[in-house]
């Protein structure tokens, strides 16, 4: 009977379809497990039953649904992000816009003095062709260089003006000299000749000669006077140079004095001053004496005599005092005083 059941299970179409469906499901589960857990082994044979297959199929279906939902959300987020990126400006443009808005707000909040200073700084930066973000130190250095260039140009213009005025004055003097030369009378010359051709040639040559420069009649006298004056001045210069040569030699000697020489002279002067003080101290004892030597000696002798008398008087007075103050014994044995 069991043998018949086995044959029936094997050859029954419904059982075969169920077995094929189960094998297909297990194949799907094995591939799913291998995809999710590559390093794990397939389920052992004793766990291959209908309950395990049902649970694994439910788990695989839930996992695929979750994967599809996650993929859908990812695709939706990607599309949303791409749309937002298309609508928003680039990062650099955003930074530029933000910077411009901040600078605009700062400029609007500035006072009148600050706005004027900022405008002046911007104009100075543009005129100096500096960088877009100038530094005050660089602006100051550029401004100083411009000031120096301006001063040099002003000096050059002043020199050009002086040169122009000098050229104008020289041109005026030359024009005056030319007018004076043209206004001077020219000597007339007439040549009579029978031939008309010779007469024309002589007149042409005379006109050519009269057009040349003729010196002033008083030029020779002026030249002689100038030569005489030059000779006189040269003689005077020689006399003055000979007269000034001693002074020049003295100045050269003075220029040769050094600091060491001055110090040595100062030391010598101090020594002489010390000797003078000593001599003054010695001469102080002879103060009041007459200038005559004999009279001075006589007065000195008188002073010596007076000194001896004074000394003798002093000695006598001292002896009298000593005798008076010395005690003496009387006849009665009492001490008395003179």
TrEMBL record:
This is Uncharacterized protein. InterPro entries: HAUS1. Residues 262-313 form a coiled coil. Belongs to the HAUS1 family. Residues 174-224, 318-338 are annotated as: Disordered. It holds the Pfam family HAUS1. It comes from the Eukaryota. GO terms for cellular component: cytosol; HAUS complex; microtubule; spindle.
